[in-house]
Amino acid sequence: MSWNLTGHAWAVDLLRRDLSQGRIRHAYLITGPDGLGKQSLALGLASALLCDAPEAGSACGHCRACMLNSRATHPDLLKVVPEISGKRIRTGKVKIEAVRQLIYDVSLKPIEARRRVACLIDFDAANDQSQNALLKTLEEPPANVVVILTAESADTLLPTIRSRCEVIALRPLPPAEVCDALVTLHGIEAERADLLARVSGGRPGVALRLARDPDALAERYSTLALVKQLLLGSRVARFAAAERLARESNVDEIQATLQLWASLWRDVLLAMTDADLPRTNLDFGADIEALAREVTPAAGRQALQALGRTADLLGRNVNARLALEVMLLSWPSL
Ligand SMILES: [Zn+2]
């Protein structure tokens, strides 16, 4: 049975080898940016661990355990996901009660399978209290329990959690691989798939979300178009934009905007060179070429660096409006 995952063949191979050779770890931590397929990999691993008759480290796809897993109703698969809030991108909190319940559940004997598997998805959304609660389970794992965590980065978890897990760090995929999956698995037309694959930064989940949500694609379009307006705008207009962005968006949403703007500035810098490197924002080709002509390379680099600095500062809880003002005032004027 396939792992139902686009890309990351190396990670699947590694896990299949662990499983088929009986070298199963007590805890795995799958890391990587949003939309890469961390949860799919975690569930593929869980299915293989629960399957009655695994084949070369993969779930067989037709035993009773696999049927239950395909309906997400296997009694030995325990899963905790953050409760979702936020309108533009998914942010959530892991409830301590859910973590405590899971810790209790893994202390019980398996109901059907040889083991119980606990999946804690986006565990970087858990606060220190929840992470510490799980720590005891990782330090003294009950027999026949495998814990699978996912997080954007290993650094966002307590070092004591991290050190007890086998870390599997997923990387963005080549856009061509994402494009191929969009065309063959989801029937998306090739030109649109190519755009979505690049815009997603090699993250199949993000590409699919954009494909299914025309609003998200439109919002991306207006966020990118704002860059040109800001460069043409006065200081007053830039102050107003910083104020509006800080007021209307939470920190994760602002970070998403900064990421998008950074991708545009990177495209502008690429357009200044003769390098034949793939651009991200294919549908903004004309604006990118125009900016590459009107802005100096130094000013372009400075704008990109200011984005990186601001993203760092926001990660450290500084006043968002002030940080955005400083950034936008450092951008060149057209
Ligand atoms: Zn099976």
Please report the distance between the alpha carbons of the first and last residues: 56 Å
Bound molecules: zinc ion
**Order of strands in the sheet with most strands:** 2-5-6-1-7
Tally of helical segments: 15
Q: Which of globular, elongated, flat, extended, rod-shaped describes the shape?
A: globular
Structural summary, described in words:
- The chain has 334 residues and is of the alpha/beta class.
- The protein has 3 domains: 9-169, Rossmann fold; 174-212; 215-330, Zinc Finger, Delta Prime, domain 3, CATH 1.20.272.
- 55% of the residues lie in helices and 9% in strands.
- The chain is built from 15 helices and 7 strands.
- It has helices at residues 9-20, 38-50, 64-70, 96-106, 128-139, 159-162, 175-186, 190-199, 204-212, 214-232, 235-248, 251-272, 285-294, 297-315, 320-330, and strands at residues 27-31, 77-80, 83-85, 91-93, 116-120, 145-151, 166-169.
- Strands 2-5-6-1-7 form a 5-stranded parallel beta sheet, sandwiched between helices. Strands 3-4 form a two-stranded antiparallel ribbon.
- Helix 5 (128-139) links the parallel strand 5 and strand 6 (145-151).
- The chain is globular and about 65 Å long.
- The N and C termini lie far apart (56 Å).
- Zinc ion is lined by residues 51-53, 59-60, 63, 65-66.
